[in-house]
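Hi V.,

Quick status before I head out on leave. The structure for the redesign project is tokenized and pasted below; the design run finished overnight.
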């Protein structure tokens, strides 16, 4: 029983080493989010623009614009809120967005995983 368990453990350790050999390409991006829909008081508009949900979704979109296979590694900086006034009918209300959001994106380095033709 112990011998079978030891053999299984040795096989798992032996074959799991190849999963750690994956190499990644990293890229830092800086971008701006879109303004929040509608007009609101400045404090409410800033709160909507800087929600973690919005930051996460925009970060994902920033990385996806780089092409196939790019994913979010980390959000380095949430940026700063910038507000613009609405038209005359909504006096005192503003639309806000985040500027200079910094995101680190990663992608698997081509050729670092899997079997390559002609290589042994």
């Amino acid at each position: 029983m112990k011998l079978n368990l030891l053999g299984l453990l040795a096989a798992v350790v032996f074959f799991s080493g190849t999963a750690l050999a994956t190499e990644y390409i990293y890229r830092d991006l800086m971008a701006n989010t879109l303004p929040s829909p509608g007009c609101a008081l400045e404090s409410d508009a800033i709160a909507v623009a800087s929600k973690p949900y919005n930051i996460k979704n925009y970060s994902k979109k920033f990385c996806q614009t780089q092409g196939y296979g790019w994913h979010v590694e980390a959000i380095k900086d949430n940026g700063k809120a910038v507000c613009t006034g609405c038209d005359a009918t909504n006096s005192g209300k503003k639309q806000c967005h985040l500027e200079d959001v910094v995101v680190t994106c990663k992608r698997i380095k081509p050729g670092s995983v899997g079997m390559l033709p002609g290589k042994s």
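Above is the designed sequence. DSSP finds three helices and five strands in the chain.

G. will cover questions while I'm gone.

Best,
W.
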